[in-house]
Amino acid sequence: MARRETPQQAWERMRDGGGGQTRARNVPPAPAPETTPHRETPDLERRPGWDAPAQARPEPPSGTSPSESGEASTGDLVKQLTDQTKTLVKQEMRLAQVELQEKGKKIGVGAGLFGAGGLVAFFGAATLIAAVVLGLSTALAPWLAALIVALVLLAVAGIAALMGKKKVEEATPPAPEQAMGSVKRDVDTVKRRARK
Length: 196
Prior knowledge:
Blueprint: H1 7-15, H2 74-137, H3 142-171, H4 177-195
């Protein structure tokens, strides 16, 4: 009965050109085959070429570029990084735009409600003033009651206008003077250090 060829012998036969006889290169004798009749899993150790030496394995063709063999070049990686950065910036800008639109809607609704509240408060104050006039008219002549209330209101309005004018004068000019002074000091410091 002919002896079965070992994987090492088959590998050497393929490497040496496929002759009928394999060269004996200190190959140990093949172990006796196992006699289990039905084996479910394939014996991976007995496949030809499975335990082939690493230096004899075929190399990829020399004409292939690194990108074809699965590795990306530095230029490709930089291009991918640039494209992904552009996409990320566009998505962030869209997100900011949507967020600002939502906040703008909420601010608009809030300002409208605030304005409506101010208008209702104005009418309430006018009604209250009419009630004060009517209350004073029971003790005084109606025209005198209305005159007294009007003079009090004009005095309050004049005091409020003077206080507002004072606050506006403190806030002018509207330029951020402290920030501008700080920037000028920073520029002067940089210039002095640059001269040294």
